Amino acid sequence: MIEQRLRRTLLYVPGNMPSMLQNLSVFGSDAVIIDLEDAVPHTEKDAARRLVRRFLEGYRERDKEVLVRINALDTAWAYDDLREVLPALPDGVRLPKADTPEVVERLDTLLTEFEEELGVEIGRFRILPSIESALGVINSIETAQSSTRLLGLAFGAEDYTASMEIERTKTGEELMNARARVVWAAKAAGIQAIDSIFADVSDMDGLRRETELVKGLGYTGKSLVNPRQIEVVHDVFAPKAPEIAHALQVIEAIQRARQMGTGVISLGGKMVDAPVVKRAYRTLRTAHAQGLVESMPDEEILHG
Amino acid sequence: MARNGVGREIPERWHGKRLVPYRDPYSLRPGADRATRSLKRVNPGDRKVVATLQEAIERAGPRDGMTISTHHHLRNGDDVLNHVVRVIENLGIREVTIASSSIHPVHAEIIDAIRGGTIARLECGVNGLIGELASRGELDCPITVRSHGGRARSIVTGEVPIDLAVIAAPCCDEYGNMNGVQGPSAFGSLGYAFVDALHARTVIAVSDNVVPFPAAPVSIPQSAVDWVVPVQRLGDPAKIVSTTTRVTTDPVGLQIARYAAQVIEASGRLRDGFSMQTGSGGISLAVAENVRDMMRRQDVKGSFGCGGITGFFVDMLEEGLFRALFDVQCFDLRAVESMRRNRNHVEISADTYANPFNAGAVVNQLDCVILGATEVDVSFNVNVNTESNGYLLHNTGGHSDTAAGAGLAIIVAPSIRGRLPIVKDEVTTITTPGETVDVVVTERGIAVNDRHPDLRAELLRRKAPVKDIRELQRDIYGVTGTPRPLELEDEVVALVEYRDGSIIDTVRRVKA
Fold first, then answer.
1. Which of the residues A9, A19, A23 would you substitute to probe the B interface, choosing the one with the greatest number of B C-beta atoms within 10 Å?
2. A73/A137 same-domain check
3. What CATH class does B251-493 carry?
């Protein structure tokens, strides 16, 4: 199954700041992660939860995916976070400290209970687990298969380097092995891989280099701490003009093939089949989201 | 009472003056000659330097009811107007009209002179406390707000005859030649003071930097200047010009700037010969930065930048993105430095800049202007004078002049300010008529005036977040709620004059 939704940019917004929540619809990130965890001091946990619920109840015309980062399941706050926020119907939960598949399974069970209670479709609330410790990285292959609710794996470099007792650098050599394992785990499970935040909001060149690096590894998106970072990340993920031109040719070729009653056709001496079409479709989807092509081929094209 | 062209009730007369209601931006024509002043004769050997400002004013023949002007290049660091007012109080002159180019919060000390009867009238807009007090009915002093071009026009036509102009000069010689680019208080362009120098019955230069004859370069020449007064200081140099002006880092501001740049690109005006004006605010500079990057990428060679000039525009001039800068006011020290050494950084008068009643102002040549707003309404009318509490807190500047002149007038503003929505059914005060406003850009969407269906279609084609202005208003009200209407009395405390001298709106006393 192809995960159709674009998740190039997942913007963190502190759950205790009304002025920032109110601007959430303004920025063009693909998703937002409203944070009840690290951004919110202990003394404000309950107030933030209520604020987020009220905000989401009023945010009806949602133009982007909305995730809520709850507190870790082993804290006293996680259950209350879910109880307060889920009735306002976020799209999913970002789960911190997903060190083992069991943690994700526990959240899955809780979400099912809430879905039954709220009378919404089972499986509606998605999960994005954060892989952010040595243990989490080791277990990421099982974690990626632990629930049908997973929309991806998110790598958390800040907590990871802390758990490794090492410094995070801007070139990221110390993260290579962990990043590689997390992206394998995600790809093997057919879900998306989301890279860590880049903390220095004034260093756009550094952000661009890191995004190019993780895109090359197979990551499909990045968590962000500031809206100013969106443009750079989208720019890196934007397909280049020759890629778009080729993708359009592929789609046209396969449409011709289907009319002729076949699923395979040659384009410029190279065979066009299902995986090639899939890649072309993904390229056009990203291009379309950034206004680089006028229209999208029908999703039917993938299934012939 | 008559209803004017933008639907506002305008009294027939106000404080002895017959008012012309605003009709439209372009059709009103002047019906008389330029104002004149008496000829003079200064013989060889006559000296112009006098020891004190009081002595100079005494020689000018002070009288009750006279009109005095200063200019606002010293901005909130200015001490000249306060000094003038202290002198006329000393001399016991009464019921003076002040016709400065602008009044700033630093001039709050003249409030006592208004209350005491020394000052009876302000033929100029105000920034800050004076306007607030007037709006609350606590100050008995009629105020007429004018744009930069409108002020120049009112002096040139003689509607506001100036008896005495006091010009602050960063550099002045003993015979009255001045410039603004040399000396410890150098603020750059003397643009607003040119009109005063040419029309006031008496012209006094005050300077903290009186040099032996001749001062060069010459901005305002000796032939226009009657007296020269050396002073210790013109004001607080730290507040005269900003040392730097910066692009905003606020994500909301940057989003607005990106949309505005998109509008400029979609308008098709970004081609060789492109000209632009922006303010010095963080969002304006961010727009300029985006435009600069587009000009570089597309190899566009622009023609000129104008208005208040910042170091940012200086860089564009030096990079070859503009061939000239037309400068009425330098906003930072880099601009001052540039004017000192670059002949293509041209000092222009407010008359040349924006007066609608001359043979063609610079604003008429503008492709694009980026302007701010305290409020806009669903008819694209813009308010920059009053805030949503009804208080008169800001002067017009070049707002209505550049909107009328430029091919594309873009308003940039955050959709919500201090919990209040920026787009309303009707603005509290109309500074600039919607007919001259082309696009309103907020972080929640872009509204295009119906007069530009092509631009709207092009923006939609580029997937820009175009919204009908009422839809934009609805979205903002969805966050803020609907604001309660302001309650105003009938009493008019100030007039907002359009650049052609007709009255576009009034400011009424706010209900206590």
1. A23
2. yes
3. alpha beta
Q: What are phi and psi of B159, to 5 degrees?
A: -60, -35
CA distance B251 to chain A (A): 6
pLDDT tens digits, A108-134: 999 999 999 999 999 999 999 999 999
* A&B contacts, CB < 8 Å: 24
* Pairing status of strand B119-122 against strand B445-448: unpaired
The ipTM is: 0.78
Structure tokens of B504?
A: 């576009």
Q: End of a domain among A237, A257, A276? A: A237
Q: Does residue A184 sit in the same domain as residue A279?
A: no
For residue A136, pLDDT beyond 90: yes
Q: Are residues A84 and A198 in the same domain?
A: yes
pLDDT of B281 over the 50 cut? yes
Q: Are residues A165 and A278 in the same domain?
A: no
CATH class given for the domain over B48-123+160-239: alpha beta
Is A264 inside any structural domain?
A: yes
The per-residue pLDDT for A262 is 81
DSSP-assigned letters across all residues of A163-225: HHT----SS-GGGHHHHHHHHHHHHHHT-EEEEPP---TT-HHHHHHHHHHHHHHT--EEEES
Average pLDDT of every residue of chain B: 96
pLDDT-derived band at A56, boundaries 50, 70, 90: very high
Helix, strand or coil for residue A19? helix
Q: Looking at the 3D structure of chain A, how many domains does it have?
A: 2
In B429-448, the residues whose Cβ lies within 8 Å of chain A are 443-444
Test A26 with B444 for CB contact under 8 angstroms: yes
Q: What digits encode the pLDDT tens for the residues B431-448?
A: 999 999 999 999 999 999
What would the 3-class secondary structure string for B246-308 be? CCCCCHHHHHHHHHHHHHHHHCCCCCCCCCEECCCCHHHHHHHHHHHHHHHHHCCCCCEEEEE
pLDDT digits (tens, 9 = 90+) for A182-239: 999 999 999 999 999 999 999 999 999 999 999 999 999 999 999 999 999 999 998 8
Q: Distance between CA B76 and CA B73 in Å, rounded?
A: 9
Residue A204 to chain B, least CA–CA distance (Å) = 13
Residue A3 lies in a domain: no
In terms of Cβ atoms closer than 10 Å to its own Cβ (0-12, 13-18, 19+), residue B294 is middle
| Closest by Cβ to A23, choosing from B249, B252, B478 | B252
Question: Distance (Å, rounded) from C-alpha B392 to C-alpha B492?
Answer: 12
Average pLDDT over residues B289-299: 96
A27/B255 Cβ within 8 A: yes
Burial class (CB in 10 A: 0-12, 13-18, 19+), B212: exposed
* Domain match, A134 and A271 both: no
Flag whether residue A227 sits within 8 Å of chain B, measured between CB atoms.
yes
Q: What is the domain range of residue A254?
A: 241-302
Q: Is the pLDDT of residue A4 over 70?
A: no
Distances from the Cα of A15 to the Cαs of A20, A224, A239, A245, in angstroms?
9, 15, 33, 42
Residues A249 and A282 in one domain: yes
- Residue A188: inside a domain: yes
Question: Of A190, A211, A237, at which residue does a domain stop?
Answer: A237
The 10s digit of each residue's pLDDT in B170-184 is 999 999 999 999 999
Residue of B nearest to A23 (CA): B252
| Residue A110 covered by a domain | yes
Q: Are residues A159 and A225 in the same domain?
A: yes
| Percentage of residues in chain A having pLDDT higher than 90 | 74
Whether the per-residue pLDDT at B413 is higher than 50: the answer is: yes
Task: Sketch the domain layout of chain B as residue ranges.
Answer: 48-123+160-239, 251-493
> Are A68 and A113 contained in the same domain?
yes
